[in-house]
Write a structure and sequence with these properties.
By secondary structure, this protein is of the alpha+beta class. The protein contains 17 helices and 22 strands. It has an eight-stranded mixed beta sheet with strand order 6-9-10-22-21-20-17-11, sandwiched between helices. A five-stranded mixed barrel has the order 1-2-3-5-4. A hairpin with a 2-residue loop joins strand 20 and strand 21. The mean pLDDT is about 95. The structure holds aspartic acid (ASP).
Length: about 575
């Protein structure tokens, strides 16, 4: 037996016992007559002590020890003279009797403790060392707990966990595919799944009724804090259900996981149409922890001689409560902030509603106090508030105003961590018009069903068709999304047609699905949650990288094993591949 206990469990009740621990040397403090070693394992840290009672033959071993050596230590548990209340084992220490080096360590490239001196890149390069830090490990423990909760809930609710292949034919989810060349089929390629979408629908045709899988998905797209080229979904599909059934089941899953893992009770999830989310929050993933809604003041603000507003398609405003005191400098800085290319506003108008009831604005030349008062009334602004106005193209301005709303929310401390406000955003448009390509794209994916009452519009005004599609949003983060599916091959063929596939292309790419639909497809619907995002939300983190054991960096590289990397000429030959020159 390598150990009798772990480094996280010794307490006063163990005093006097002889025990053996095994772990990594986190720190050594040599005080001459005494030396202390912090011994770490997954469970915690225990202080080992060598003093005048320590057998002389241990001195030689102690002298060789360095950070991150793996050792086995036997000794007697004794009370500490100075206790450490911040440590689970802080009341006791282990008086060393025997010590054995199990594995020496080179000097680690950074200190492996919570407040490490290692920068991001270095820690990623030595991720296995970074993972020894409890702060990092805890995120992965949380992840495992959550996966366990999800499995329990879904299994108890009759879902069958089913694996689907990783080497597949492309499934469109709006990103580029990663492809894998086939040696046995020269010149042909598999795609890695952007999601198991088609397979789960085929499982419904197969009569599986309720499917789930915690599954890796792959999308070759530009990376951000909440995106990785490979990520994990909680992927589900159900038969003989309507949208409400899916929402209720997965609202249940979300509540169960919050309760089980964080012991947090969340309220029932409100349902908000996409159009309301856009108009009131300027986002299809509204953060409803706070109000500060967008208001359309186009009618109130036009035809007063201010040409910028007069020529705008939309004029929108938000009310920053209690911010009338903002200085010139603060307003200028905020104006610069909204003008950044990521936000793209051309400028910003402000109206200060002072405590004494007077108005001061950047457009005083055009608007009287009465005019500004009508704006304030529309926004429910009170003396002491600051009104911020953006104008221009409707969609772009709402989006910019939505981003400004979040920024003000941050500045006013309204986006509190540890408060969770989930909601369902429903009634998404089925299609999205791409101005550049002059064609429609599926807003969700091509298998999403239009709302039955909107089907007629497919022929006359496809852009107006709403989908039976839904997203789960928590605190402004899109956690999941899904839809009721088309299960009729003719409607599916029509959808492919609208999306610009010729019948031949549709057949070549999705023939097997359309064929399957000919053999009795049940009505079905499904959803997928971004598991990494859900875990990082539970962990109170902003980046999903911290909840992935071996993540990739912003250029999609694994800096630890240095991939992607070139392959040998032999491998290329075997795959019948020839590389083109690139810069
Ligand atoms: N496959 C979809 C996605 O990955 C989710 C779904 O419709 O079930 O977003």
């Amino acid at each position: 037996m390598y150990r009798t206990h772990t480094c996280g469990e010794l307490k006063a009740e163990y005093i006097g016992q002889t025990i053996t621990l095994a772990g990594w040397v986190q720190r050594i403090r040599d005080l001459g007559a005494m030396s202390f070693i912090d011994l770490r394992d997954r469970y915690g840290i225990t202080q080992l002590v060598a003093d005048e009672n320590t057998p002389a033959e241990l001195t030689e071993v102690l002298e060789q020890l360095g950070r991150e050596f793996v050792i086995q230590a036997t000794g007697t548990v004794r009370e500490r003279s100075s206790k450490n209340k911040n440590m689970a084992t802080g009341d006791v220490e282990l008086e060393l009797k025997e010590i054995k080096v199990l594995s020496p360590s080179a000097v680690p490239p950074f200190t492996i403790q919570d407040d490490t001196d290692g920068g991001d890149d270095l820690r990623m390069k030595y991720r296995y060392l970074d993972l020894r830090r409890s702060a990092v490990r805890k995120n992965l423990e949380l992840r495992a707990q959550m996966a366990h909760a999800v499995r329990s809930y879904l299994t108890e609710n009759g879902f069958i966990e089913t694996e689907t292949p990783v080497l597949i034919k492309s499934t469109p989810e709006g990103a580029r595919d990663f492809v894998v060349p086939s040696r046995m089929n020269p010149g042909e390629f598999y795609a890695l799944p952007q999601s198991p979408q088609i397979f789960k629908q085929l499982l419904m045709v197969a009569g599986f009724d309720k499917y789930f899988q915690i599954v890796k998905c792959f999308r070759d797209e530009d990376l951000r804090a909440d995106r990785q080229p490979e990520f994990t979904q909680i992927d589900c599909e159900m038969s003989f259900v309507e949208q409400e059934d899916v929402l209720n089941t997965f609202e249940g899953l979300t509540k169960y996981t919050f309760k089980k893992v964080l012991n947090v009770e969340v309220d029932n999830f409100p349902r908000m149409p996409y159009s309301t989310a856009m108009e009131k929050y300027g986002s299809d993933k509204p953060d409803i922890r706070f109000e500060m809604l967008l208001h359309d003041i186009t009618n109130l603000a036009q035809s007063k001689g201010f040409s910028i507003f007069d020529s705008a398609e939309y004029i929108g405003a938000i009310c920053a409560k209690g911010c009338a005191e903002y200085s010139r400098k603060q307003i200028d800085e905020l104006t610069e902030w909204v003008k950044r290319p990521q936000i793209g506003a051309k400028g910003m108008v402000y109206v200060k509603y002072s405590d004494d009831g007077s108005f001061k604005s950047s457009v005083d030349k055009f608007y009287s106090a009465e005019d500004l008062k009508t704006w304030a009334e529309k926004l429910g602004a009170k003396p002491g508030d600051l009104i911020l106005v953006l104008s221009g193209d409707k969609a772009k301005t709402m989006d910019a105003l939505g981003t400004l709303r979040l920024e003000i929310g941050n500045r006013l401390g309204l986006r509190k961590k540890g408060t969770y406000k989930p909601l369902w955003v429903v009634d998404f448009p089925l299609l999205e018009w791409d101005e550049e390509g002059k064609r429609f794209f599926a807003m969700h994916h091509p298998f999403t069903s239009p709302k039955p009452e909107d089907i007629a519009l497919l022929d006359t005004d496809p852009g107006k068709v709403r989908a039976n599609a839904y997203d789960l949003v928590i605190n402004g983060v899109e956690i999941g999304g899904g839809s009721v599916r088309i299960y009729d091959s003719e409607l599916q063929a029509k959808m492919f047609d609208i999306l610009g596939f010729t019948p031949e292309q549709a057949k070549a790419q999705f023939g097997f699905l359309m064929n399957a639909f000919k053999y009795g497809a049940p009505p079905h619907a499904g959803i997928a949650f971004g598991f990494d995002r859900l875990v990082s939300m539970f962990a109170g983190l902003d980046s999903i990288r911290d909840v992935i054991a071996f993540p990739k960096n912003n250029s999609g590289r694994d800096v630890m094993n240095d991939s992607p990397s070139p392959i040998s000429q032999e491998q290329l030959d075997e795959l019948y591949l020839q590389l083109k020159k690139h810069d």
